[in-house]
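Q: Two folds, back to back.
A: First:
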Amino acid sequence: MGQERFQSFGLATPPALDVIPADDAVALLKSGKATRNALLAYGNGRSYGDSCQNGAGTIIDMRPLNRIRAFNAETGVIEAEAGVLLSDIIAHAAPYGFFPAVVPGTQFVTLGGAIANDVHGKNHHRRGTFGCHVESLTLLRSDGQAHYSSATENERQFAATIGGMGLTGLILSASIRLMRVPSLDIIEKVTPFRDLGEFFELAEAADQANEYVVAWIDQLAGGHSRGRGLLFTGNHAEHGSHVALRAGGNLSVPFQPPFNVLNRPFLTAFNAAYRWKKGRSTEARQVGYQGFFFPLDGVGNWNRLYGPNGLFQHQSVMPQDVARRVVPALLAAAKRAGQGSFLTVLKRFGGVRSPALLSFPRPGFTLTLDFPNRGRATLALLKELDQITVEAGGAVNPYKDARMGDDVFAASFPEWQRLEAIRDPAFMSSFWARTAKRLEARHGAAEAAE
């Protein structure tokens, strides 16, 4: 596969050692000769941790399966192969007045990856997760058969594959329902808030009035400014563009710096400048969709700025009734540890249920932090953040993770065994091996000792 590194976006885990193209994997699976735990699909490498890696096996480059097969301009249902990028779906559907109902923070994810991780966006309070808009999918398993499933046909496999992190087989294609929009442009409004108390006062009303809501937190601010930030709200403009722009930008980080560029002095200055630039006007303004949804896509390989050891991202969700206590506790833990987060995002999850068997979003508030990998000190902080989260009845996001313990995973997803029961025996990830399989081994040993 040449010199390309098939690595997670966090760059804190080793790259894949063995990679095969999708066509070879399809042929292997159809032959029925795939061995246990040998395979895992790899989309476009935007997962932060090791849920997209199979350190003991082979990963499958899915990007060659990138055809859009059909699009219904009346209903907005699009059928595409699993390797199609979200940016391609946007470009194809935009002239007809459609946009994905849910988009994550990057458009450079594959359709299969968006389904496997049941990704969410800035409008979970209205639209739920990506999986809520999947009509059907076709899955190739190691029995050599292509399995069609939907919410009404082969329902258990359908539910397990959405949010199943690629463990139920190889997603070949899927049909999803897009959302009709008046234009791609967004009417954005920025509201500064003094502290987290003010944010929580604003959050519910903002959700009720807007399609998209997200908050940025100045994680390094202290004293009377602790917890300050900016609340971004957005709605599709009635009059605006129906033409998708070329995905990405002209800026790029061309090489891996030998040290972490995003150090504390830089972050302090950046946060001050960002808050001033974005918060200086509270008037609503019309902006392009890429800048609103995918601001970091304009800088290629921006993850390299964290230095040669990469980064860890920690995303937690906690029940709404404890969020006013837990969010400040998480931010305080990071501050005590002397760790600065470049991207600190806070938003509210609504009550729209996902069809997924395992799905990270659930009603409450979610906080996302990312830290340069400084070895044991960073791992100790992340473990403390895990503990605060699970003790509050919350969960840690598995597809943003590269190191959580199996106990944290079990507390976050107590029904993990239901996915293990449907997992294709030929598919395994480094994440599943270090969490679910260890739990399974521990349970087996306990039963044997009784």
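A: Second:
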Amino acid sequence: MLLYLRLLKESFAFAMNALRSNKLRTLLSLLGVTIGIFSIIAVLAAVDSLDRKITKDLSSLDKNTIYLMKRSFGPSDIPQWKREQFPNMKYDEYIYLKGAMTNTEQMGYQMFTNRESIKYDSKTVSDVNIIPASHEFIDIQGLEFDKGRFYNESEANSGSSVAILGYEIAKSLFEDLDPIGKNLRLYGKRFTVIGVLKKQGAGIVGGNSDDTTVYIPVNFLRQLYGDNSEKVLTVVVFKPVKGVDMDAYKSEISQKLRRFRGVKAGEIDNFFINVFSGLTDLIDGILVQMNLVGWVISGFSLLVGGFGIANIMFVSVKERTNLIGIQKSLGAKNRFILFQFLFEAIILSVLGGIIGLLMVWVISIVLTKVLDFEFVLGIGNILLGTGLAAIIGLISGILPAIAASKLDPVEAIRTGM
């Protein structure tokens, strides 16, 4: 055992000495592996970071949450011209379903509308995401507050001009002032701030974040636009009780809404029942595809890096043929020569991998600070990058190392002279 440890130690020392003696060649050999490892780990780290962010953004929502609306989350067999004829969800349909549905924990009504500007004194914030919603959304969305509260059922039903501000909106308008009780202008009306949401960070899903969102009672916008405005897209949101049979629950929604709308037997539904898990599955599929594309593209870089190391090792064997012959004539075993060149290839590759990982780590820190997005380089990706580099070095160096170990000492000395 000690003999083999000494063999490995001496082979490692010879490999390090060879790398130090040819610094320029060593540097050029590193580049291919560095770029390959950097490409793969950067893609995997970016996808992991997106996945974590999406999971965090959606953690407050039940995967069984249902969005009943005239649009579909995914592809549909129904022609587009027919889908465009589907009616918006009406407020009275929400009221009816709220009283008629069973096995429902919460049900809310929401409008998707245009972005607006909001003003306080001389300060204006543009491109604000406005969410008119019923009072149940505090529980459906799992909203958390930095200050104040959400509007209650009475305020929501009467369409009171009260507003809940996202963290960044409140900071931009009021800076160090307490926003609660202050009045601002929205839709040309005066709104009273009654709550400020906790800081959420950059949004991924839908491109929006609660930090840049303002919640107002849905009935305020109904009074302003009416129930048939083309400026809004309406949705009824269902949060079923735990453990409910989702197929039966969706069937109940379909049957009751068809009956309320007077849809005849044999006619298709003029609405879509979108389960939130379908959206998360779609996102998961996109992330898998991103990973796959990253592996394919980065794989070419690794392939080039591997060929580069193999080429350098063959050149190294040829340059040191005379030295190999001398070592063998002095009693060096084949395995000593094998390990010497194999270590050299693996060290080259692993060093390139470490440099690639360091580049990803530095960029992740910069992006986290600049983009307000947590870019994470996980321990799994670090181990993967190091392992890949070692495997590339092993594969690239095995043939040159075997060729070196099998050289005849007399022929090697004669060839090198």
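Q: And?
A: The mean pLDDT is 79.
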